[in-house]
Amino acid sequence: MLTWEQLEYVTKHCVKCSLCERRTNVVIDRGSRSAGIMFIGEGPGEQEDIQGKPFVGPAGQLLDRILSAAGFSENDVYIANIVKCRPPGNRDPLPSEQEACINYLRHQLLLVKPKIIVCLGRIAAQRIISPDFKITSQHGIWIERKGYYITAVYHPSALLRDESKKRPTWEDFKEIRKKYDSLFGEESAF
Ligand code: SF4
Q1: Ligand 1 center to 170 CA (angstroms)
Q2: In principle, which of 21, 47, 68, 99 could form an S-S bond with 57, CB 3.0–4.6 Å?
Q3: Does ligand 1 lie within 6 Å of residue 16's CB atom?
């Protein structure tokens, strides 16, 4: 298994897929590397590519507001993506690009050791949960796999395009908070 330093070095120099050709930065993560909950999106956008951090553009700012409303601070969460380099024009990362990059995310998962994984959007859910995952009908559903509790919510950029997705997403985040509290909440002594 790679250390954080090795992972940073290897990804920074990675040329395993053509997304390396136009990147400004390799985008690895933000948040706490010892968080109990990990959020996974599909790939960096324009602002993420410029700043070298995931979810820092308008969708990321919305995600931060939702996380804060659900009582999560930056120290409680770990945020990463399926691919580490920006797909041109914000297109979906191709299956071959996801395949080239997924091993880095596996290392991140092993290093962080969260108990909860939340897929942000269809692409992440189809890669992490099931290839035929339908985000419209299956968001908010929980599965347990290899000791991880896994669910998916709409991608925050979908909420920016469609206001009607905000309410069901908030309901999903309330359940995420409940799951987190059931796993990490402080127990009363009496
Ligand atoms: S997206 Fe992943 S696999 Fe492709 S060049 Fe970037 S780090 Fe390497």
Answers
A1: 32
A2: 47
A3: yes
The alpha carbon of 144 is separated from its chain's Cα centroid by a whole number of angstroms, namely: 17
The β-bridge partners of 117 are: 38, 150
Q: Is the pTM of this model over 0.85?
A: yes
Total domains present in the chain: 1
Range of the domain at 28: 4-183
Ligand 1 centroid to 36 CA: how many Å? 26
Residue type, 189: A
Q: Per the structure block, which two tokens stand in for 117?
A: 């994984």
Position 190 in a domain: no
Condensed to tens digits (0 to 9), the pLDDT of residues 151-182 reads 999 999 999 999 999 999 999 999 999 999 99
Cβ neighbours, 10 Å, residue 20? 15
DSSP state of 181: H
Q: Which atom number of ligand 1 is nearest to the Cα of residue 97?
A: 4
* CA pair distance 26, 17, nearest whole angstrom: 13
> CATH no. for residue 159?
3.40.470.10
The first and second tokens of residue 125, run together, are 């859910």
Ligand 1 centre and the CA of 13: distance in Å? 9
The counts of H helices and E strands in the chain are 8, 6
26 lines ligand 1 (CB under 6 A): yes
Q: Look at residue 189 and tell me if it is in a domain.
A: no
Cα dihedral across residues 125, 126, 128, 131: positive or negative:
positive
